[in-house]
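Entry type: protein chain
Record version: 2
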Amino acid sequence: MSAFHNDPRANKSDDDPLAGEVSCRILDHEIGGLILAISENHLQTIRIRPNISAQMQSAGTVLGLDDSTIINEVLGMIRYRNLSSRAQDSLADVINSIIIDNPEPYLSFYNRAGNLSLKMHAFALLPGVGNKKALEMVDLRGRDGWEEFSKLDADCGIDGAKLLAERLAKEIADHHLVPRLVELLLRQEE
């Protein structure tokens, strides 16, 4: 029996990757089976045993981890490779919706990112952003940065939330990909 049974805050230890998580978003709700989801704060992929009477939920639906009408038990973490193909396919879109709904920690990447080496800026980790575009983005950011994704997108001619979601999804899929923005942005020791 998981420490999360019906109370996401019960019996947490300091090294628990789901500590402090109160909600998740559904990646896939398998017929008659498990709910595959991603936690909203730290982007951890998790398995949930739904109640027998729970109705099917669509990808992107927000669930409180203490929602006993749907959740019977949070079973714990699941590796990317063990996610269903539908869950894998919906990962970047669901992360994008998390970013849009809670932009502050993700905008901090755009407002604080710096050089990773003498030849590479952190912006160049984003799909389709090369060193030249990264340097343009640094100039456009200035000292104050951006307060909203809409301003960032207009200034830089990108879809900042989507690019970051794609990078984060790629990192979740491949744990050997470095540097890892998901670790830098979301999974730091607090």
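Comment: The mean pLDDT is 88.
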